[in-house]
Amino acid sequence: MREIREKITALAQAYADQLELYQKIGAVGAQEGELIEQGQLDRLLQALKEKEGLLKRAGEYEQQIRALQEQLVSHFGLSSFSLPQLKLAAPEYYQDDLAALHGVVSELVPVLERLEDQERKNEAALSAYLQRAQAQEAVQRKMAGRAYRKEGS
Hints:
90% of the residues lie in helices and 0% in strands. It has helices at 2-38, 41-76, 83-89, 95-152.
């Protein structure tokens, strides 16, 4: 019993640690949007490297989470990991631990949804920025070409 309770607690802690990382990723993502707006591409690259490191750490938690989920699935004889199924299969003495796990997961879901939305917006902003930069470059080339032709006449 204690071993399973420790696995549930470890799973909740892994999700909590992952949640903290995703919140940091969100802060970096907000900074990305500002840097794109300001055209500060050097600082944007630094922010992207920082985010990459945070995402890598979050991925490491994902491996730990999967292993713990598999152990719980096996212990309770479930076909796959599902909190509702786990709550139904687990005896009463695990319910408080499962409620704590559910609380962390329910905090994690909206953070992940916001990150996904933020990422889409940042990608769109960067794409628009690059299109403007290319259009501006094309205009400058045309103007330079005209000036060169006038000088050569």
